[in-house]
Write a structure and sequence with these properties.
Blueprint: E1 8-12, E2 18-21, E3 51-53, H1 65-71, H2 77-82, H3 97-137
Antiparallel strand pairs: 1-2, 1-3
Length: 138
């Protein structure tokens, strides 16, 4: 006779270990930052990485960004995961040299967008100035 386990099965993002956690099973998960609300903040007993409800992700699909957003304490966990820089210590929320990589990447993206906006505004100003000059000549 098999014993039914109580709770929800959670899976580790780092080592794939599964553990049953004594918490209320959700009928529908809402995309929100649960760790900031003090909910579902589970860390793997083997490696310390964050854990997520295993039924939210198909075993044959990659873990989506929403899972990181919902269950990791670190706001940059997904970006680091994509760059193979996520480590269980990321859940300690202490700035490490690896964290600067994400900050630098985000700043570079912002600077590129600002440069593009600056060029667009300069072109629009030049066009307006050219129109004004043409109108004043006539």
């Amino acid at each position: 006779m098999t014993r039914k386990r109580k709770g929800v099965q959670f899976k580790c993002i780092h080592c794939n270990k599964t553990e049953y956690k004594d918490c209320e099973e959700q009928v529908q998960w809402i995309v929100m930052r649960y760790p900031k609300k003090g909910k579902y903040r589970y860390r793997c007993s083997a490696c310390g990485a964050f854990m997520y409800p295993s039924d939210l992700v198909s075993p044959i699909e990659p873990v989506p960004e929403e899972i990181f957003f919902m269950f990791s304490a670190c706001e940059n966990a997904y970006e680091c995961y994509l760059e193979d820089k996520y480590e269980p210590v990321c859940e300690d929320l202490q700035i490490r040299p690896q964290c600067l990589f994400q900050l630098s990447t985000k700043l570079n993206a912002i600077l590129s967008r600002l440069d593009a906006l600056d060029k667009l505004l300069r072109n629009q100003q030049k066009q307006l100035q050219d129109q004004t000059d043409e109108e004043s000549d006539t």
